Amino acid sequence: MKLIKNSIILIFVVMLSFASTDLKAQDFGADVVSSYVWRGTQFGTGPAVQPWFTLPELTSGLELGVWGSFPTSDAGTSQTYELDLYASYDFGPFALTVTNYTFPTATGAYDTANYELFDGDMEVSASTSLGAIGLTVGYFTDLEALYVEAGTTLAGMNLAIGYGSDGDSAFYAGGESGLVNVSLGGSKDIKITDDYSLPLFGSFIYNPDAEAAFMVVGMSF
Questions:
Q1: Where are the beta strands (DSSP E) in the chain?
Q2: What is the CA radius of gyration of the chain?
Q3: What is the rounded distance in angstroms from the CA atom of residue 163 to the CA atom of residue 134?
Q4: pTM of this prediction?
Q5: Domain edges within the chain
Q6: How far apart are CA 167 and CA 88, in angstroms?
Q7: Mind listing the pLDDT tens digit for each residue in 134-193?
């Protein structure tokens, strides 16, 4: 585990060295969502802004990036501030991603309970396609929590079913295993001008294990 975290630090040091030679960011943007729901669990309350940023390709198939989620209002300890570093490589038949999940405070600082920027909750995930079905498997190395999701397109809608299995502590299914995410969603573009359309998306999410349901809408920039 220490080796993996040190590797993440090395990757981002390399990123910064490339940035210092006048390389520009490959892409960046943001989503604004009515609420932050991830794998059948809601984090915080109210709308959130979720920016993302990817670096230029250092080699074909490799993507390095940062993703965050920040609430639009401050409700104290009930809110979730998240900042994740990730490295992903597309091997063709499948893609492998290492993500470092961190949760700073509202000021951007990290306290002792929320680790540091390069020392968060590490997940190793793989994704592939089996015909019309997309399959994602993620495993948190420290938490020993497994997540498996299958997704497809049904009648023009995106359908996903996720199964979570916890280790020693409650994470997906209250310390046990079960279906934690059944979602049905879609997207459309709202024409603003002849040259620009605003992408909108929405989904209905049900967590059978927690008996919780959510409706989420958002827009991308």
A1: 27-33, 37-38, 41-42, 48-54, 62-71, 82-90, 94-102, 121-130, 133-140, 145-154, 157-165, 177-191, 197-207, 212-220
A2: 18
A3: 14
A4: 0.86
A5: 2-25+86-220
A6: 25
A7: 999 999 999 999 999 999 999 999 999 999 999 988 899 999 999 999 999 999 999 989
